[in-house]
Specification:
With 206 residues, this protein is mostly helical. The protein has a single domain, classed as Methane Monooxygenase Hydroxylase, Chain G, domain 1. The protein is 78% helix and 0% strand. The chain is built from six helices and no strands. Helix 2 runs antiparallel to helix 3, helix 4 runs parallel beside helix 6 and helix 5 packs antiparallel against helix 6. The N terminus is likely disordered. This is DUF47 domain-containing protein. Pfam families: PhoU_div. Belongs to the UPF0111 family.
């Protein structure tokens, strides 16, 4: 890691860690949604909205700190991209839960649980990785594994689409379910964006 003669603002590390921990909360709510009956989904969606608002607050705090800091721990653009990508993850997860409730989906198609399991694992890895930004240690395995998970999510997504278009579902139901699985896929993509940004930061700091 480069030796620096100037002090650096360290609160960014704590804020990134808090944002990632909040994403773990969101992934757990997604898992909870899987096992919930329709009567319990609205309450889960309300808790997910609260988590998404907490994520927004964390992102705004990072941006405020970025705008008010003369010295930052790494490039300003990378700080912005990392915060934005973390925020995107929560947005997509909240959107997926909201759509399930709004569309009154009785049963999610087989394979959605695999999508959510991938997201939950990516959330855990991301939360574990954020504190390591302080030292840039032990990050390589993180971004390699998240990229592998994103590839896995792509495969699951393609299988889900094939299942939705196999003629079993009514056209309107296909549209509803496709939107949900597409948003979950976007969440997986956002996890990869976070990992790629972390890799970029680590390379610059090496």
């Amino acid at each position: 890691m480069r030796f620096r003669l100037t002090p650096r603002e360290t609160s960014f590390y704590d804020m990134f860690a808090a944002s990632a921990d909040n994403i773990v909360t969101g992934s757990k709510l997604l898992m909870e949604l899987l096992g919930a009956d329709m009567s319990a989904r609205a309450e889960i969606a309300e808790r997910m909205r609260a988590a998404e608002h907490a994520g927004d607050d964390a992102t705004h705090a990072i941006f405020h700190q970025l705008n008010s800091s003369f010295i930052t721990p790494f490039d300003r653009e990378d700080i912005y991209n990392l915060a934005s990508s973390l925020d995107d993850i929560m947005d997509f997860m909240e959107e997926a839960v909201d759509l399930v409730v709004l569309y009154n989906v009785e049963e999610l198609p087989k394979g959605v649980e695999q999508q959510i399991e991938v997201l939950a694992r990516a959330a855990e890895l991301t939360a574990e990785a954020m504190p390591n930004l302080r030292t840039m240690d032990n990050l390589t395995e993180y971004w390699i594994e998240v990229n592998r998970l994103e590839n896995q999510a792509d495969q699951i997504h393609r299988k889900l689409l094939a299942h939705l278009f196999n003629g079993k579902y009514e056209a309107i139901e296909v549209l509803k379910l496709k939107q949900i699985v597409d948003v979950l896929e976007e969440a997986a993509d956002a996890f990869e964006h976070v990992a790629n940004t972390v890799e970029t930061i680590a390379v610059k700091e090496s």
